[in-house]
Structure formats: C-alpha cells, structure tokens
Specification:
The complex is a heterodimer of chains A (about 240) and B (about 375). With about 240 residues, chain A is of the alpha/beta class. Chain A is built from seven helices and ten strands. Chain A is globular and about 50 Å long. The two termini of chain A are about 30 Å apart. Chain B is of the alpha+beta class. Helices cover about 50% and strands about 20% of the residues of chain B. In chain B, strands 2-3-8-5-7-6 form a six-stranded mixed beta barrel. The chains are: A alpha/beta (about 240), B alpha+beta (about 375).
Chain lengths: ~240, ~375
C-alpha cells in the first residue's frame, strides 16, 4: 500500500457567486495509495462533489496540482482528459449510471470497447466480474429490468473492468435502501482491496465509512479532519446511531 | 476507425432496443416521402399532360406570329410564311401545326381531345407506333395517340365520330383510325392528328370562319440541318422571314398558358413538404437528445469522445431516414399501381431520384442541431441534473 496513486496539492477551486468569489475547494492537499479505499464526507456544500469533479478530470481547478497515477491534470487538453477518464479512472454515480439500451454485460463490456481491449481473450471477463457481484443471472437484463442495487453493482463492475488506477464513486448509495447500500459498499470495498485499486467515495452517509480505510472530512471547502485509525473510523460510522 | 465502430455499436444497439420508437419516426419520414414522391409524380404528370406533344417535337425551333408572345393559341401564321421558312438556308424541314380541340363521340363518355393538323412527312407529325400515317388532302383519316386509344378503347381500323360546333350547329364527322402514336398529350388532352385539309374541314369554327377553307397554321416546327447551329438558323429566320418570332422548345413549353404557374405551384408544395419534413425530424431528434442528456453525460464522463457521441447521433439519423425513405418509396410504388389512369401521375426517374436525394438529406439537415447539441453537452452539467 505504498505506491501513491492520487496526489492532491494545495487545490483551490473558486466560483463567482453574485460577483463574489467563493472558494468551493480551499487549499486542499492529500494523497491516496494503491489498495486504499478513502471516503470523503461532509455536509452539503462542503465541496465534496466539486473535489470529485476535479479528480475525475471533469472540472479544471483554479490552482493547485492533481496527479493521477503520475499524470498531472493541470495543463492537460480536453482530449487528454477524455483519454485519462477512459483509461485510468473508473466511475460510479448516484443514479442513472448505466446506458439504458445496453444490457448489464454490454454496459460492462463497453468500457473494454472504449479502451480498445475487447478482445476474444477478454470477452469472458465482464460476465465473470458480474458473476462475482452476484449478477450471473442478470447478464442480459437491461438496466430498467434491474433493481437499484443491481444497477449499482453493474456500475461497480463497469468502473473496475478496465483495471483503472483510480475508482471514484459519487454517493453510490444515495438511491438505495440501507441493506442494499451496505451490500454495495461492502462489495465495492472488497473489490478495491482485492484488485489493489485506489478508491475514493464521496458520501453523506457516515455509516458507509465502516468499509473504508480512511475518512477525509470536509467543511466549507476545506479538509478539516482526517480519520485514520480503525477505531476512529468505526466510531464515526457508529455515531449516526 | 475505433471511434466510428464504437459509434456504430452504440447507434445500432439503441435503435434495436428502441426499434418501435425509431420505426415510428421512420414511418413519419415514409409518409413525408410518399407525399413528396406523389407531388413530384403529379408535377411530372401535369407537366407531361401540358407539354408532351411539344416536348416530343422532331424540331429545335418553333416559329410564331410576331407579337404573339410565344403563345401557340395566339399565333396565326400566313400560309405563305411556311414556304418562306422552308427557303431559309439551314432549315432542313418545317411543318405547320394547326391546333384546336374537339370531342370524340362515344356511346358512354365523350372524350375531349386536342385536334392537331400536321403534315404527315414534316416536323409536327409524331412517329407512328402502329398502323400508318394518314393520307394528305381531305382524306378523313386520323392518327391517334396512345392515350386516346386507351381511354377511348379505340384501335386501328375503327371509325371515330367527331363532334364539332361550326357556326351555331353541332356537326358530326366520321374519321377512320389508320395509325397510333406514342403518348402525345397537349393541353391535358389526348391528341388526334389529321391532315391540314381534314383539320380545316372538321375543326370547331365560327360562322365567319366557315366562309374560308384555307387552313391557317398556329405555329411552324422547324428542324435545322445537321451541323448548322440552332442560333444561326434562328437568326436567319428572323432576318429573312417577316412578321415572325422564333423560340426554342423550352421557351415554347414555358409559355403554354398556365404551365409555369402550375409547375411553380407543384414545386412550392414539394419544397414546403420537405421543409416540414426537416422541422419534424429536427424536432424529434432534438427532443430525443434532450431526454438523453444524463445518458450522454455518463457516456462522456466515462471517456467517450465527442466524435463517438456525435457520430452515433449522425448514424442513427441516417439509418432512420434511409429506412423511412425506403418504406415511403415502397408505399409510393404500391399506391401507384392502384391509382386510376386518369390521374396524371408520372414517375419520372430523374425527378424521383432527385426527390429521394432531397428526402435523404432532410434527416441529416433536420438532425444537425440535435447533433451539435449532443456534442456540446457538458458531462459535469449533465451529471448534476441527475
């Protein structure tokens, strides 16, 4: 767990609201290593989603540096950002994650097609990964035929299938009931650890923190606290009750 | 290449999984195609009905009386003018054409026809496809065009009974059918051809006209000698023959009363049908893209390039349009088989191909805005909508 995959240095993102500059991200620095699963928590408006958007190469920061697997985001053109998102980053979103006209298996396969690695040798991998996520009977189902939990598991498979350096999850449990939410995050965490990927999950649900290795707490755009020990993290997760 | 294959994959998966919806849009295009092709066929049919005889003339120039504004019915030439025209250097042949209308008496339905007086061996006489040409003089022989033959159920050897109003009385004349020509409609009527003397004898005329039995030609069809420029022949005619004006065939056709206005009307209808088609298709694809904003956002967020998203949209538009045009063309062909022959529908190859090409363009043109919109969708904004 030594190799640093995600490095964030003195990151700032300023928006102008009614003519007044507001720092949505205010001098944030942290790093995440391979095999580490980190949660970013905080109240609404704390800057979680803005941070995730910058890490996902969807939003350009005002200042500061972001390195993903050694690739610096600042200075990248749009084409390079698209290529980075395609090859080095895996995504899951809150909802509507999947392409509605592709089956579960095709949704996962699509990442391989996108990266030009949909070879005969790799053709069984999507089904195997979906099988690991308990979806072996739902391979040919369309997203509309899947439950919310099943859709999220397909999205997780899609986020991991092309072996990205960084896997980002934006409120992956927002649309799920408690039981399904725990199942999804547990599965996510186990695959991150098993495949030695780097995971970063934005969540407002502190209970989900019990499956992560570290928690970054944000407030008003700043990183205000970091939970590192298992005991601290579990206390945070249990504090909800 | 990979981007194209990926776009192709996405486009066809979406079409196949939503084939009912896409087929409905194709059906709308099919109906527009049906309408456009029928308007094109109607335009061609109406134009043919008006100009067919003139367009088929074995001549390059038509001589009118001076100041007749190239209107056939307004032109009346002196008989001596025909001889003067034939003497002009560069003129290979010149045939006077005498125009009128009459009615073939039929026990069931009288058939209105254009009664054309022509000389059998001169320009103005169409090629005979069956039988022979009429003899000269007041032979009481007639050659009819195939439209008259089919609509009047007339064959070579039959006797026609013609009714003409002469003075204030109905007069009836019997003519023997000796030959049949191809389609030669003129002024929306089938044509019958007779010798000038016969024409003068049987045509409808006023009391005053009955006193003179010299046939007066309306126009003279002029064929130039091979190798002599048409403009040169025209210039010589204008210089050497007095009291005339000379037009080529397109000018003569465009001056047939009502022809230009009628064609402009039909073309305007076709244009607006295509325009409506563009707006309908544009509207559909725009709504579709608006519904797909989050989905396009996800595609872009996970690394699909703009070229993949844009190409997929273009492929869908092309496929939907092509299917619609193909179905529409098939429907048009099917309907054309069951339409009654008196409706002037003519499916001219060039005009239909032009209409099909225009129809194939309406999808891409209509969908252009939606493709631009799809390409410009910001993944971040699209995902925030969720």
């Amino acid at each position: 767990m030594d190799q640093v995959v995600l490095e964030v240095h003195d990151l700032v993102k300023t928006f102008t609201v009614d003519g007044v500059p507001v720092n949505a991200i205010d001098h944030v620095s942290f790093s995440v290593c391979a095999g580490e699963f980190v949660a970013v928590v905080g109240p609404s408006g704390s800057g979680k989603t803005t941070l995730l958007s910058i890490l996902a190469a969807l939003l350009v920061p005002t200042s500061g540096r972001v390195l993903i697997d050694g690739h610096e985001l600042s200075g990248m053109g749009e084409r390079e950002r698209v290529r980075l998102r395609r090859s080095r980053i895996g995504f899951t979103f809150q909802s509507n994650n999947l392409i509605p006209y592709l089956s579960a298996q095709e949704n996962v396969e699509f990442m391989l097609r996108l990266n030009g690695i949909h070879t005969q040798k790799d053709s069984a991998r999507p089904a195997q990964l979906l099988g690991r996520l308990g979806l072996e009977r739902r391979l040919h189902s369309l997203p509309a035929q899947l439950s919310g939990g099943e859709q999220q598991r397909v999205a997780i498979a899609r986020a991991l299938i092309h072996e990205p350096a960084l896997v980002l999850a934006d409120e992956p449990t927002a649309a799920l009931d408690t039981q399904r939410a725990f199942q999804v995050v547990e599965t996510f965490a186990s695959l991150i650890h098993e495949q030695n990927r780097t995971g970063l999950m934005v969540t407002h649900d502190l209970r989900m923190c019990r499956y992560v290795d570290r928690v970054l707490q944000m407030q008003d755009g700043r990183l205000v606290r970091e939970y590192v020990t298992r005991q601290d993290i579990d206390e945070l997760a249990d504090a909800v009750h | 290449m990979r981007a194209f294959l990926l776009a192709f994959y996405l486009a066809f998966k979406e079409i196949w999984r939503n084939r009912g919806r896409f087929f409905l849009v194709s059906l709308v295009i099919a109906l527009i195609t049906l309408l456009v092709l029928f308007i094109a066929a109607l335009g061609e049919g109406l134009a043919n009905g008006n100009r067919e005889y003139i367009a088929n003339l074995d001549a390059q120039l038509v001589v009118f009386r001076e100041k007749s504004d190239y209107i056939i019915s307004a032109s009346r030439l002196e008989p001596i003018t025909v001889r003067a025209i034939r003497r002009v250097d560069g003129v290979d042949a010149a045939g006077p054409i005498f125009t009128s209308t009459t009615e073939i008496q039929d026990p069931e339905t009288p058939l209105k026809v254009s009664l054309l007086g022509v000389e059998a061996d001169q320009p103005g006489m169409p090629p005979i496809t069956q039988g022979r040409a009429f003899r000269g003089g007041d032979s009481r022989e007639v050659v009819i065009d195939t439209n008259a033959a089919s609509r009047g159920n007339i064959a070579v050897g039959d006797e026609l009974r013609i009714r003409s109003v002469q003075g204030t009385d109905d007069q009836f004349f019997n003519l023997r059918v000796v030959g049949i020509t191809g389609a030669q409609s003129y002024l929306f009527q089938p044509s019958v051809f007779v010798a000038p003397s016969t024409w003068e004898h049987i045509r409808p005329q006023s009391e005053a006209e009955l006193k003179d039995d010299t046939p007066i030609p309306n126009i003279v069809a002029v064929r130039g000698k091979p190798g002599v420029p048409v403009d040169l022949v025209r210039a010589r005619l204008m210089m050497q023959v007095s009291g005339i004006e000379v037009a080529d065939l397109p000018t003569t056709i465009s001056n047939i009363p009502g022809y230009s206005a009628q064609q402009a009307t039909v073309q305007t209808q076709a244009f607006f049908t295509l325009l409506i088609g563009i707006l309908v298709i544009g509207g559909f694809f725009q709504i579709q893209v608006l519904q797909k904003v989050p989905q396009i956002g996800v595609l872009k967020a996970i690394g699909s390039s703009n070229s993949v998203v844009g190409t997929a949209s273009v492929i869908q538009i092309i496929v939907v349009t092509a299917v619609g045009v193909a179905v529409g063309a098939g429907l048009t062909y099917g309907f054309s088989l069951i339409f009654p022959p008196n409706i002037p529908l003519v499916f001219n190859g060039a005009r239909s191909v032009l209409a099909v090409l225009a129809l194939l363009m309406i999808g891409p043109m209509g969908g252009l805005v939606s493709v631009i919109y799809a390409v410009r969708i910001e993944p971040l904004k699209a995902l925030r909508l969720q």
